[in-house]
Amino acid sequence: MDKDKILEASKKHPIVDGHTFKYGTAGFRMKADLLEGVTFRVGLLSSLRSRKRNSQAIGVMITASHNPAVDNGVKIVDPMGEMLEQDWEALATGLVNAPTHEALVELYFKYVKDLKIDLRAQARVIYGRDTRPSGHKLVTALADALEATGTEYVDYKLLTTPILHYLVRATNTEGMPFAYGEVSEAGYYKKLADAFVRAMKGKKVNGSLTVDCANGVGGPKLHEFLNYLPKEQLGLDIKIVNDDVLRPEVLNLDCGADFVKTRQRAPPAPKPQHGTKSCSFDGDADRLIYYWNEPDHRQFFMLDGDRIASLAASFIGDLVEKAGLKQDMRIGVVQTAYANGMSTTYITQVLKLQVICTPTGVKHLHHVAQGFDIGVYFEANGHGTVLFSPDAINAFKNTEPQSPAQKEALDTLAALADLINQTVGDALSDMLMVEVILAHKNWTLGDWHETYKDRPNRLVRVEVADKDLFETTDAERRLSRPLGAQEDIDNEVKKYKDARAFARASGTENACRVYAEAATHSETNELAERVVRIIE
Ligand code: NG1
Ligand code: ZN
Most CB within 10 Å of its CB: which of 125, 274, 301, 390? Predict the structure, then answer.
């Protein structure tokens, strides 16, 4: 490999002038026509990352998740299936913003030198993309970067984001205590199907389930997955809707998890059937929201990430107790400041589990969840998972049961550890987990919803001249800058009962967000508006 090869390849995929790019919470994400050069350069970095990490496979996912079809994005997945390490985000930003092809090549070799990367080591990259039409062009740019750097690569074509994360983890087995699963898309389906059957323990799924796939890649993948399940044995009656991936313009349009969560209503099409248990994936199938419309009251009920977290924590907490492992296991729930205050109260006071709050962005939650034996983490928007430590998995598999009940609890825990994606939030895997729990508890969505009552809340997006003026502390719950703003917010919050409010700069949009909770809807709105006025 030489400089000229990279230089020539780079000239085929120039960066669009006049833009500053930043590797954000979800990698690089923007209008797809700005992304070709960006993706090429991400390819260069992923190759370096693999060489730096002893030739382990690095993943690259091309998706813009719940964003409209004209957008796209590219992000890097580290060897254990986790998000790219933070220090390397800055390196990615550096490469992508190199002003010329020559400057790019120079910076690439500067990284090689500074990070002591051995260019003779084999580099390995695997990648996939969602259903966006722009994905084709972007993978060409990516492959050209991998060719130019002598990187071995596998193009997995259409994938959900969590399947790509699974494949990265499964590929890098060397030195791992357990194999993660077969290195193929089919291997992912088989692992989940097998674990689902084991976790159900002969129970049947409670009622039919309508799954809205946001017209994204989750649709075809869910269809495929269902072929691996003994549907009758499980009493499984799944109806897949919004699974049109042939008309790109309908992706995430008036459907999907983000629509349901932000609009607080079911997708208008197909016409919601009253009382039917429903859930929505987002465009790359890493978020999940459950809901139903009440037949009599015409009311809409939603079970978001906070509810999924508390459901999982309650079920797994009980199983750990039945398995006789309560003394040995640290179980914790990780949330962000956007979690409804009543979910936090329920988890700490009723379930008696520890809750930690982190800044927004799943990489932060994931990291903190790894500190527990069992770490449950979800953002309110439905992105999350449950992590099990190697010690926990060992205990599920190797504890000698003293009773049939204890054996059943241990087996169910071991099955859940296989069922739940250990790398990232996964709508398909999370949906199966929810169904297992509802079946074991013999609960409807109504029973689940009754566990606690949400506090009224309001989230407002505020246009500001310069969002970078807003700096936070305390897991983004307090503003340290501009000076004095937090004091003003505190003064407003004090005036309301059971109230909480905070403001922070968005990590994904050029705006600030204000969040408020209070005892009633009108007080919540009033408080939110007062805080908006402070930061405007
Ligand atoms: P920002 O724009 O930083 O608030 C949003 C979501 C996050 C997270 C990221 C990445 C809210 C309030 N924020 O972050 O939860 O999912 O996008 O997608 O929903
Ligand atoms: Zn997503």
Answer: 125
525: exposed, middle or buried (C-beta count within 10 Å: 0-12, 13-18, 19+)? middle
CATH value at residue 504: 3.30.310.50
Parallel, antiparallel, or unpaired for β 71-77 and 57-62?
A: antiparallel
Q: Average pLDDT of 114-124? A: 98
Q: Answer yes or no: do 333 and 294 share one domain.
A: no
Between the CA of 513 and the centroid of ligand 1 the distance, in Å, is: 10
**Rounded CA gap, 526 and 520, in Å?**
10
Residue from 379, 385, 504 whose mutation best tests the ligand 1 pocket (most atoms within 8 A of CB) = 379
Closest CA to 479 of 503, 499, 501, 500: 503
179 lies in some domain: no
pLDDT band at 275; cut points 50, 70, 90: confident
Q: Does the interface predicted TM-score (ipTM) exceed 0.95?
A: yes
Do 317 and 418 share a domain, yes or no? yes
Q: Are 91 and 47 in contact (CB under 8 A)?
A: no
Q: 16: which DSSP letter?
A: P
pTM, whole model, 2 decimals? Answer: 0.97
| Pocket lining: 338 vs ligand 1, CB cutoff 6 Å | yes
Residue ID of nearest Cα to ligand 1 atom 8: 361
Q: Are 317 and 351 in contact (CB under 8 A)?
A: yes
Q: Between β-strands 512-517 and 288-293, what pairing exists: parallel, antiparallel or unpaired?
A: unpaired
